Sequence to fold (168 residues):
Amino acid sequence: MTESEDVARRVGRVLITEEAVYGLILVSGMIVVSNSLVGTSMNALLTVVVTVIVFFAAHVYAGTLARLAKDGADGNLRASIRAAAHHSQGMLFASVAPLLILFLGVIRVFSDETAIWTALIVDTVLLGALGWLAVARWTRNVWHRLLSALITATFGGVIVLLKAVIHH
Fold:
């Protein structure tokens, strides 16, 4: 296996997780909520960053407690924290693309509205890609992959519709 294949495999292991899907849905929801307050890229960026960090920390904390409480667990706090953080990192990594787009709005590469809408659309596309890739790991059937991509992207699509209904 080449180094680039190994990197791709490791990235896939982090991003094709329930935490990554949850992270993208969380980011989309927070963008919509933040836009109802002030409607700037800066507000959306700060709201999403703080929310993702808090949810990540809560997820790591809950995972650590669950690992420590398991029957037969050795009670190693550091190992439990490390395992929980490793398990939850998809939530952080999945938020990078929409955060970069919002940052481009903050520095005025895009208007606030363009940055916010683009971040929501990218989230939806990423959700579809994660759905496709996850199913691609267990079947070559294109229809199964497509259905999974559609279902996963629909979570983001519903939030995009919510934004359209609430804010326009």
